[in-house]
Amino acid sequence: MTYAPKTEKPQPTAPTETQTIKIGIIGLGYVGLPLARLLATKHPVVGFDINRHRVDDLQNGIDTTREVDQTTLKATILQHNPLVPLPALVTDVSQNGGPTLKTGLFCSPDIMDIQSCNHYIITVPTPIDKNNRPDLRPLYAASETVGRVLKKGDTVIYESTVYPGATEEECVPVLERVSGLKFNADFFVGYSPERINPGDKKHTVDKILKITSGSTPEAAQRIDRLYAEVITAGTYMAPSIKVAEAAKVIENSQRDINIAFVNELAKIFNLLEIDTQEVLKAAGTKWNFLPFTPGLVGGHCIGVDPYYLAQKAQQHGYHPEIILAGRRMNDSMGEYVASQVVKCMIKKGIAIGGAEVLMLGITFKENCPDVRNTKIVDVIHALQDYGIKVTTFDPWATPEEVKREYNIETSNTIPQNTFDAIVLGVAHNEFLS
Ligand SMILES: NC(=O)c1ccc[n+]([C@@H]2O[C@H](COP(=O)([O-])OP(=O)(O)OC[C@H]3O[C@@H](n4cnc5c(N)ncnc54)[C@H](O)[C@@H]3O)[C@@H](O)[C@H]2O)c1
């Protein structure tokens, strides 16, 4: 979808220290919603999402990602756009002690609701396509949306994970084309990567040190101050947008490679009939041994971000060896786990063809409802290839979503029949206890 540049737009003055900060968050998912909620404690925030269903849920205080609890969300949500004051509501403080009219979060699927914001923060997905190439379409679309409402003096901050250079080389041209405004003269840009860990209630967005950056020294300072207001863990101002982009993408690539290494160790120790967990426990007694554990690497961060870095490297004529070797190793683990299950069953004299296996968990990680890019599906498919019938139970996953995404039946209640084998696929607290 391409929008024509707008001809008429309000032209407020350039940002000043005293200007009221009015924030628009584009994309209200795992990253956008907790950030919007946090910023809404200090500023009026309008969250924009193209998914009307998600917007309706949020306005009703329901977060299906379970990142923001209902009480907190309901206390933050405003039923009216705080940027469009209602003449009848003159008081600053709502009667029920909830958020004031000046702060709080209003969610909307309507672009008109974000037109008077002066800070836009983009938190849309950055997936890969079926050939593992970065798919920047959501980022282009969100940039077009912001371009339509961009005004002189506005700031646009990207939080989505990208490769170094994507903000200035890919997104800024879209903002300029759609808005008709000039970068670093009329509007400014920043990049501040998100580091949250879905399902982790300890390291919430406010408690994770935030990298910030801006397209000019002044913009960088302004953006850093904005985050410093709400991030109790503090901020780190990177010297450039590219440095901030690169820092984020290598954080997850480093985890991917480290997990690939312990996955390789698991394969070796299995052959040697040594317990990998015991080896890691013993090695972990050294102060500088890193505590990684073998497993499936799914989701849309650790298993995806290395491809962003790899693509950029390839564009510049360098073929990354370690990064892609790590990806290959981790992507092979589903099949490997299935083969190990089958081996165990054979050793116990269980006939494989027609055997019944219970899979505990299908989400991409523990204590989180997200099933996108889950590698449990690889295990299930590999087991099915052996002629095994797999039943899946996951108290966190939404059965309709699993059916839609993978055409796999799953249940939120534990099946009562008996099984030949049970695979503890995802370490949800319910299973561990
Ligand atoms: N989930 C994580 O743990 C995590 C952590 C750090 C960084 N990130 C990065 O943050 C970004 C967002 O990830 P996420 O997990 O929040 O994604 P998500 O899929 O949970 O949420 C994205 C939201 O954006 C909306 N959206 C998509 N296109 C849009 C558009 N053009 N305009 C408005 N809304 C749009 C979707 O409807 C969805 O609600 C990605 O780049 C991801 O790599 C994610």
Task: Please give the structural blueprint.
Layout: E1 23-26, H1 32-39, E2 44-48, H2 52-59, H3 70-76, E3 104-108, E4 119-122, H4 137-149, E5 155-158, H5 166-179, E6 188-191, E7 210-212, H6 217-228, E8 235-237, H7 241-271, H8 276-283, H9 305-315, H10 322-331, H11 333-347, E9 356-360, H12 376-385, E10 389-393, H13 399-406, E11 410-411, E12 421-424, H14 429-432
Protein traits:
binds nicotinamide-adenine-dinucleotide, disordered N terminus, 6-stranded parallel beta sheet, about 425 residues
Biggest sheet details: 6 strands, parallel
Strand content: 5-15%
Indicate the mean pLDDT. 93
Counting helices, strands and paired strands, the structural category is alpha/beta
Helix content: 25-40%
The helix/strand order is EHEHHEEHEHEEHEHHHHHEHEHEEH
Strand arrangement in the largest pleated sheet: 3-2-1-4-5-6
Question: If you had to describe this structure to a student in words, what would you say it looks like?
Answer:
The protein is of the alpha/beta class and 433 residues long. It has helices at 32-39, 52-59, 70-76, 137-149, 166-179, 217-228, 241-271, 276-283, 305-315, 322-331, 333-347, 376-385, 399-406, 429-432, and strands at 23-26, 44-48, 104-108, 119-122, 155-158, 188-191, 210-212, 235-237, 356-360, 389-393, 410-411, 421-424. The strands form 3 sheets. Strands 3-2-1-4-5-6 form a 6-stranded parallel β-sheet, with helices on both faces. It has a 4-stranded parallel β-sheet with strand order 11-10-9-12. The chain has a two-stranded parallel sheet with strand order 7-8. Strand 1 (23-26), helix 1 (32-39) and strand 2 (44-48) form a beta-alpha-beta unit. Helix 11 crosses helix 12 (376-385). The radius of gyration is 24 Å and the shape is globular. Nicotinamide-adenine-dinucleotide binds next to helix 4. Nicotinamide-adenine-dinucleotide (NAD) is lined by residues 26-32, 48-51, 54, 123-126, 138, 141-142, 145, 159-161, 194-196, 198, 300-301.
